[in-house]
Amino acid sequence: MSLVNLPGLRQMITEISNQHRLPEDSVKEALREALLKGYERYRRSQLMDKKTAQFGEDYFENFEVELDVDEEGFRVLSTKIIVEDLEDTDHHISLQEVQEVTSEAQIGDSVVLDVTPDKQDFGRMAAIQTKQVLLQKLRDQQRKLIQDEFKDIEDQVIPAKVLRFERQSVIMAVNSEAGEVEAELPKREQLPNDTYRVNATFKVYLKKVREGVHRGPQLIVSRAAAGLVVELFATEVPEIEEEIVRIVAVAREANPPSRYVGPRTKISVDTLERDVDPVGACIGARGSRIQAVVNELRGEKIDAIRWSPDPATYIANALSPAKVDEVLLVDAEERQALVLVPENQLSLAIGKEGQNVRLAARLTGWKIDIKDTARYRAEFEHRAGAGVGVGEEE
To answer: Is residue 354 helix, strand or coil?
Structure first.
């Protein structure tokens, strides 16, 4: 079988592997694909003069390149179908021609043939095409390796270092098996309390691994995702890691609608162990565990509350730190609740610009209306005395 010599092939593969931090098998695969593209270019130029020449997407699917690292060269092989009347020499071979080699050949059988062109015939144009495709294939191999590696740790927390700034995004470096990989922290995923400086390190939540061919970073990371809080608590609280305590729900407002309101998170926890206080486990001795999470999130307020199967109790807990007098489940189907609180707890229950009640509603999944207990009861008695039922207009 003929061979197109590539002097220094073994060394070239090793150097490319080291330079691009790719396994040698990935480099060989990229080189095979690039050489095949080069052969396609060469073959197209040969057939271009033929008016009948048509090249579909699958025209060259029966061709492949075989690398010979020991002999430092390559061959082009083609799988052809045996036919009686030969019209397409790229995909077919005549029965008569094959029977000259083996009498057992039959129409419809397939044979693999060496179609390697002479190096001189291969041409400068095809060589240039091969080099261009090789660079692209190497980039594709790197993307695939990154996708395969990071897809397994999607939705987890990883350390990242600030590299530079592009428009409103922060470009960060994340360590991988192939070395440093760039990740994008978009504006919407940043925290207002963070100070992003070059070489500063942060824990980020791996939100998405872009698949396919994309310009720029393939990894999208977040500092604003609720999952970041979950993973930070799982790191700080052994009981969560050991599944003694479970996180039931998280409601986070990392970027409040008003600049006068700071970031805040509510997290509800539960346990099946009678002797374990799930909220206390999350807070830790002297608040050490929850403070570690707060510090990582640059001072973000975090409320850890006890989950309850009883909606009224759960809603009352969710409005912490406000003290609640009573929770009335107005419409269970529509999940609407009326919460009564003392006058001095009203503003605390609602929160600055409604943040506390907004997060409590998201955490519990109930629409929450908050009223002053004394005023509500006075209005109720007035309605009752006037003969007006609850919810009716006078």
So the answer is: helix
Strand partners, 93: 82
Task: Give yes or no for a contact between 36 and 30, defined as CB atoms under 8 angstroms apart.
Answer: no
Task: Indicate the pLDDT class of residue 388, thresholds 50, 70 and 90.
Answer: low
Q: Return the ∠ at Cα 275 (arms to 272 and 280), rounded to 5°.
A: 90
What is the rounded distance in angstroms from the CA atom of residue 33 to the CA atom of residue 68? 14
What average pLDDT does the structure give for the chain? Answer: 87
Are 190 and 202 in contact, with CB atoms under 8 Å apart? Answer: no
Alpha carbons 257 and 281: distance in angstroms, whole number:
32
Q: Which two tokens stand for residue 185?
A: 């922290």
Token pair belonging to 210: 């872009």
Q: How far is CA 280 from CA 289, 290, 294, in A?
A: 10, 10, 16
Please measure the distance between the N-terminal and C-terminal CA atoms of the chain and give it in whole angstroms.
100
Q: Quickly state the pLDDT bin for 166 (edges 50, 70, 90).
A: very high
What does the alpha-carbon distance between residue 223 and residue 6 come to, in Å, rounded to a whole number? 49
> Cα dihedral sign for 362, 366, 367, 368?
negative
Q: Is the pLDDT of residue 127 over 70?
A: no
CB-based contact 380:372 (threshold 8 Å): no
- Its pTM stands at 0.69
Domains of the chain, earliest start first: 4-148 (3.30.1480.10), 154-222 (2.40.50.140), 225-307 (3.30.300.20), 315-394 (3.30.300.20)
What local confidence, expressed as pLDDT, does residue 302 receive? 97
> From CA 56, how far away is CA 44, in angstroms rounded?
11
Residue 218: closest CA among 137, 160, 138, 146: 146
Mean pLDDT of 159-166: 95
Name 90's Cβ contacts closer than 8 Å, sequence gap at least 6.
Answer: 43, 59, 62, 78, 80
Predicted local confidence at residue 331, as pLDDT: 95
Higher pLDDT among residues 255 and 128, named by residue = 255
Mean pLDDT throughout 190-202?
Answer: 95
**Number of other residues whose CB lies within 10 A of the CB of residue 25:** 11
Give the phi and the psi of residue 152 in degrees, each rounded to 5: -70, -20
For residue 106, is pLDDT > 60? Answer: yes
| Residues 302/190/178/67 CA torsion (nearest 10 deg) | 130
The one-letter amino acid code at 345 reads Q
| Paired strand residues for 264 | 253, 301
